[in-house]
Amino acid sequence: MIDSRQAYARMRTLQAVVLLIFGIIVLRLAYIQLIDPKYEKLARGNALRHVVEYPPRGEVFDRNGEYLAQNRACYDLMVIYRELPREGFDTLRMLDLLGISRTRLDRALRNARMSPRVPYMVTNFLPSEVKLRFDENNFPGFYTVYRTIRRYPREIGGNLLGDVGEINAEQLKRNPRYRAGDYIGQSGIEKAYEKVLRGKNGVRINEIDTHGVVKGSYMNGLFDSLPEPGSYIVTTIDARLQAFTEELMRGKVGAAVAIEPATGEILMMVSSPTFDPDEMVGRHRGNNYMKMLYNKRQPMFNRAVKAKYPPGSTFKLVQGLIGLQEGVLTPANRYPCAGGFHYGRRVMKCHAHASPLDLRDAVANSCNAYFCYVLRNILENRRYGETEHGFDAWKAYVNSLGFGRKLESDFLDEGTGYVPSSEYYDRAYHGSWNALTVISLSIGQGELGCTPLQMANFAAILANRGHYYIPHIVKRIEGRDSIDRRFYERQYTMIDPKHFEPIVEGMWRGVNVAGTSTLAKLEGLDVCGKTGTAQNPQGRDHSTFLSFAPKDNPRIAVSVYVENGGFGATIALPIASLVEEYYLTDTITRPWLVERVKNMQIHYPSYAK
Question: pTM for this one?
């Protein structure tokens, strides 16, 4: 009796367990079919194909409406592994049509097999004619996606325009709104204005049959979204001036920048050597990128905004302005130069010229000794008590003139240059230093480092007699009334405008009367300029020149820097002068000078190591 009762209880328990399991299964199936959207999507995936539609990237124009960057059509070839025919396909025919290797195709198919319902890219950058031939052969499981890639018609401004490439894994982590396969700006304007140029992806949903053949648009495109094209950009660049300057800088290492003083618009920005941006487009981008990356002259490095160059004698203008503002210098002050500035047993050498000179003639003749006296008087100014405090005041002036800091231009990779601090010298000399310790700063040597953009901006400050507009590369953006307001705001230095007149007069004399810059003279244009020869511990001196023209109502401010170029008047001055003439007159009256610049051979032993 007891055994029968126990058997009955066990049977009832077993029935309850079976019913419970059955109930769980029923509930799970109901959840899958009625509630869980994931399985609904998978079911739809059996009949629907979501195709990304890429927008055309915004085009880029120069200030006169000439194309700098355009788009051209190309196609990505995609595969969905589960839609491939079981009997296979004509592999040799496909390879012949696409021009890719068997290894690449096999690798793509292996990767696609890991997620058989997900589209996987086999190859990209297919031209239209290849796409048409491929479609005629009807390979089930494969389809093409239209997109555009860049074309740079002028073949100029590699560092300026930058390049566009496929987003990498690291960039995907930082930009979750992007997706694998997207092309984004990697450098230059393409990178700085990526959000403007890029546009927004669209999606097209197609119905497909069991063989992967498209039957049409799902629900007549009700759920499709059209791509939104990127906005075009009008830059401040003059394409003809850019091309001409690149031609003059070819074979040389350095940079050149030109700015319109009245607006801060960058007219030309050349980094040399540069690269043809068209070489960074398409399936050969990777190989070309690696070649340039390992080129010892670093064509991918934008010297115009990143390099830290000693400014040399162009920095004497800074000392003169600070001396006038601090009241330790007047335009009439005259200082002797007996072959240089003598201090103790040392001498800061100078070239032969008349002596003594006043401020204007010291600028015109680039006297080293004169500005050594000026810097010493600034740092030893009695009202500061100690040299350290005088130096801090000097540094504040230098920073206000745009050195040792970013100018906040619209170039993302803009460098700061370098201006040492009193703390730096305290550490370097254990607190025991004075004005003579840092006297090399007077002629733009020592620890100073300036970018060519900063030097061109300083030329614009001189042209404007004390103010500037933040240098920028974009003039107008499609669909916007204006660019960032900071580019319209006048920036002031710590120097009173009246102190610029004797400095500017000295620059004018150096070009038009007598001095180190007479080769820059252009009849009727009142060019103002200052040469610079920067000492180079690794070889021949660097050549630099900054200038603006005309003297009154200036239209262009220029800085040119040529590594290992020798004296400022040797190569930097001729390039700057030709740039000014070409921009202001739209012609060249000194073809002999153009040929001299082009044919000048400069040796770069430091880049041969």
Answer: 0.87
